[in-house]
């Protein structure tokens, strides 16, 4: 219906927004100023302890600085009462003492019919409940008792029974004087295809009333008693009252329980909802015989900003979870998320509670994983990433998935979370004791600590001594300091930084924080590092002489110098560690007798080392015009050459 001009303005004038909102919140007395119409409270749309929900009576608007909910009195009633626009206006008009404009005849007729249909549905509820208590319902009562539902629980959930009769409910309603079109319109009967009287929709089934958020019975769900029935569960057809994609089973009680602080749990079916609720988790809902729809997802978010999807621990349950992920990705916003509680394999929530008690269900809810974890599992499970091409294929798939997120902030955070997981997956190293064995994903110190110990014959070499490691740590320090000062350049070097196996104290932590928080800017990055390891390691890093004299630190605003410095330091560090790996492998292969192949490998390593050294004094780069950098010591070179000269030689190449 259309409202006359000025009606809504008059309605807003008569009502104070804080009075409307005050029915649902507890005002923060310290922050609120009632005299100015400036009110603050914990947000009714997401659970929090601080008062971030602001109501401005003068402007007639509310805004939450946490979940960003905003609107006026009408939108507040719509979202908190789960009603439409006109219903919200009617509620507020009643509070304001305003007469709603007369509806046009058709609209009034339609509203009257919906009221009549709802009354017929209540008659059906009563009939089915009565049938459960008769002799015909004995088997149904026994089944419910076996599922742990005593008589009191059956009353709480208004569970009934439809006897296996073609016209049991039809005859009952006709005896009450209900018109044929209302019985058919409510979805309680179907017209006969043979010209006879209509027949009951539900026969031989345990009946579960489905109520909307206002408590009206709008449909039924029926479980077949016959195990051979083609449809184990049957829902009412869609009617003027019932749209199965826009409603949830137990939505009204769940909203009330969630408002008292309980997590919103989303189960798969009626019996799961009842079992979970009876175990103490009253804020539990379920879709109505279909996969979760977009409308149902929005309805869940209006109840709780982070519903927990509780799914069976089988293949079907996981497939259902993946469908929810695909549905939710484009809809994600700040303050709208999902978590997933996957039951142990082979169990549904009802089974879990019966076997292990409510505490097991509580543990499953507490351990529910964020959606990004399940998304990562889907994209990586069962796949092998042992080649650049396979890794690139994963990257492509992940980019495509993340690109479906419309909210830029959420998309950025998902990208960072996926980047962290990818970094952990590809941060591989050989198995301990197998210098050239299979590589495994995971963290750790990497190649250097995984190979066998250096042989005694090489321990005296400067290449195996502390000076090499000290030089490597200094190069790590320069690289980290430059990137902490200029995190905006990390993107160009990200893959190289990911592969570095940091050995310096606290360098690994700084590396991980840098990769996660570089996009947050220098100040936020430093704060994140300090939060992880404290301020002292960061201060110590920037006090190092080699860091202080680095041109990229002294001239951090010069993009060309910063880039050249990082390229130079990364190249030298990579050359040094390449030499170290080759020397370690080669000396391990010596085992007392050298051959030409091993000696050649050592000489090549020495030449690579010398090239890295020469590049520091001969190249005329932008970086070198400001700083020559760290040089290999003459003592180290002499010691390495001496080791080569003393190696025994053989005439052939052997292993």
Automatic annotation (TrEMBL):
It catalyses: ssDNA + n NTP = ssDNA/pppN(pN)n-1 hybrid + (n-1) diphosphate. Pfam families: DnaB_bind, DNAG_N, Toprim_4, Zn_ribbon_DnaG. Residues 429-451 are annotated as: Disordered. Binds 1 zinc ion per monomer. Keywords: DNA replication, DNA-binding, DNA-directed RNA polymerase, Magnesium, Metal-binding, Nucleotidyltransferase, Primosome, Transcription, Transferase, Zinc, Zinc-finger. Gene3D superfamilies: 3.40.1360.10, DNA primase, catalytic core, N-terminal domain (3.90.980.10), Zinc finger, CHC2-type domain (3.90.580.10). Residues 262-344 form the Toprim domain. A zinc finger (CHC2-type) spans 43-67. It is an enzyme of class 2 (transferase). Its cofactor is Zn(2+). It comes from the Bacteria. Its EC number is 2.7.7.101. RNA polymerase that catalyzes the synthesis of short RNA molecules used as primers for DNA polymerase during DNA replication. Monomer. Interacts with DnaB. Contains an N-terminal zinc-binding domain, a central core domain that contains the primase activity, and a C-terminal DnaB-binding domain. Belongs to the DnaG primase family. This is DNA primase. It comes from Aliiroseovarius salicola. The gene is dnaG.
């Amino acid at each position: 219906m259309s409202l006359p001009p000025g009606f809504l303005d008059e309605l807003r004038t008569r009502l104070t927004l804080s009075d409307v909102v005050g029915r649902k919140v507890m005002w923060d007395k310290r922050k609120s100023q009632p005299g100015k119409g400036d009110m603050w409270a914990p947000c009714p749309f997401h659970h929090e302890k601080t008062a971030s929900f602001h109501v401005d009576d003068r402007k007639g608007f509310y805004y939450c600085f946490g979940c960003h909910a905003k609107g006026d009195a009408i939108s507040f009633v719509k979202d908190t009462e789960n009603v439409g626009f006109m219903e919200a206006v009617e509620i507020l008009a009643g509070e304001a003492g305003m007469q709603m404009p007369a509806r046009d005849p058709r609209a009034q007729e339609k509203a009257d019919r919906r009221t009549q249909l709802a009354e017929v549905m209540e008659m059906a509820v009563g009939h089915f409940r009565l049938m459960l208590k008769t002799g015909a319902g004995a088997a149904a009562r026994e089944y419910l008792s076996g599922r742990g539902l005593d008589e009191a629980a059956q009353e709480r959930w208004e569970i009934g029974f439809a006897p296996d009769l073609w016209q049991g409910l039809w005859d009952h309603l006709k005896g009450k004087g209900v018109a044929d079109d209302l019985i058919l319109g409510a979805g309680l009967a179907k017209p006969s295809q043979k010209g006879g009287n209509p027949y009951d929709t539900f026969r031989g089934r345990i009946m579960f009333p489905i109520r909307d958020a206002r408590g009206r019975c709008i449909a039924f769900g029926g479980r077949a008693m016959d195990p051979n029935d083609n449809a184990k569960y049957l829902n009412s057809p869609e009617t003027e009252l019932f749209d199965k994609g826009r409603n949830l089973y137990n939505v009204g009680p769940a909203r009330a329980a969630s408002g008292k602080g309980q997590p919103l749990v989303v189960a798969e079916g009626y019996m799961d909802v009842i079992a979970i609720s009876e175990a103490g988790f009253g804020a539990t809902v379920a879709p109505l015989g279909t996969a979760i729809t977009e409308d149902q997802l929005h309805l869940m978010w209006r109840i709780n900003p982070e519903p927990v999807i509780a799914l069976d621990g089988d293949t079907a349950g996981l497939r259902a979870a993946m469908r929810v992920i695909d549905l939710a990705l484009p809809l994600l916003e700040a303050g709208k998320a999902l978590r997933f509680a996957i039951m142990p394999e082979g169990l549904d929530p009802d089974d879990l509670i019966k076997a292990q008690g409510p505490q097991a269900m509580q543990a499953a809810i507490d351990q529910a994983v964020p959606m990004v974890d399940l998304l990562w599992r889907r994209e990586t499970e069962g796949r092998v990433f042992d080649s650049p091409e396979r890794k690139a294929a994963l990257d492509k798939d992940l980019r495509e998935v993340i690109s479906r997120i419309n909210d830029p902030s959420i998309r950025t955070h998902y990208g960072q979370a996926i980047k962290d997981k990818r970094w952990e997956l590809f941060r591989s190293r050989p198995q301990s004791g197998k210098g050239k064995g299979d590589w495994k994903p995971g963290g750790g110190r990497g190649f250097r600590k995984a190979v066998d110990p250096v042989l005694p014959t090489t321990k005296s070499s400067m290449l195996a001594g502390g000076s090499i490691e000290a030089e490597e740590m200094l190069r790590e320090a320069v690289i980290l300091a430059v990137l902490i000062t200029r995190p905006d350049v990390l993107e160009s070097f990200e893959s190289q930084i990911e592969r570095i196996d940091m050995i310096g104290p606290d360098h690994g932590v700084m590396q991980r924080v840098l990769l996660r928080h570089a996009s947050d800017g220098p100040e936020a990055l430093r704060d994140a590092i300090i939060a992880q390891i404290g301020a002292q390691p960061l201060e110590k890093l920037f006090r190092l002489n080699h860091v202080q004299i680095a041109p990229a630190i002294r001239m951090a605003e010069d993009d060309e110098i910063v880039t050249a410095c990082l390229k130079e330091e990364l190249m030298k560090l990579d050359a040094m560690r390449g030499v170290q790996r080759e020397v370690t492998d080669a000396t391990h292969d010596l085992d007392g007798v050298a051959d030409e192949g091993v000696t050649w490998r050592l000489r090549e390593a020495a030449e690579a080392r010398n090239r890295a050294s020469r590049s520091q004094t001969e190249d005329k780069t932008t970086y070198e015009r400001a700083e020559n950098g760290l040089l290999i010591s003459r003592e180290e070179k002499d010691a390495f050459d001496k080791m080569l000269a003393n190696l025994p030689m053989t005439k052939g190449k052997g292993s």
